[in-house]
Amino acid sequence: VNVEADLWWVRVFDANSLVIGGTQGTILRYDGKTFERMDTPGTSTVWGIWGESEDDIWAVGGDPDVSPGFIWHFDGEAWSDATDQLPEAKRGSVIYKIWGQRSIDVWAAGADGTALHWNGKTWKDADSGTDQRIFTLHGAPSGDPPFVAVGGYDAPVILEWDGTAWHSAVPSPTPKGWPAQIYGVYMDAEDHGYAVG
To answer: Could you tell me the pTM of the whole model?
Structure first.
């Protein structure tokens, strides 16, 4: 397939199955042989994709100062817009990433400190304790903390979820030379991970 779009995120299920998101509402599916452009509910940038299985996938995005944030869901047959399932106060904020431990424990994060949790039935707001952007989140399976989120704008943000609330993990005072924005995080164990900015 010939696609003219910037591609921002990938979710790999196995060597023969992955999905990629990008600008212009682009979501590509790879079946081990070919890429197919999927029909999506909109044309805004897809910043993040996560799913536990190929028939239960979430995509998030939006374009700052251009179009509101969104969350879409794929049920194995088609993508649908699930933005109206979000808490009303959080509708409109751009959502940058989504990641979960399993299909009933999924987090989405974005602009203005947005942190949203899916429990398998509903999306709920979870106070992140910051109004800075949250760009990415990840966690180690069975980790403690189970989730870590990073971001920033005027100052770096590293947040840890302890199962009930988010807490800042940025050293105080912030070490000299730290970036004001942290863009990515990967936890390879409950007490070891990497963040880049």
So the answer is: 0.93
- Residue whose token pair is 């399993």: 102
Q: What angle do CA 128, 40, 46 make, to 5 degrees?
A: 40
- pLDDT digits 0-9 by tens, 118-167: 999 999 999 999 999 999 999 887 767 789 999 999 899 999 998 899 99
E strands, 15-55, in order: 17-22, 27-30, 35-37, 46-53
Which residues pair with residue 166 across a beta bridge? 161
- CA distance to 107, 143, 195, per residue, from 192 (Å): 20, 10, 10
Instruction: Classify 66 in phi/psi space as left (phi over 0), alpha (psi -120 to 50) or beta.
Output: alpha
Residue 151, SS3 per DSSP: strand
Identify whether the C-beta of residue 102 lies closer than 8 Å to the C-beta of residue 52: yes
Cα gap 134→151, rounded to integer Å: 4
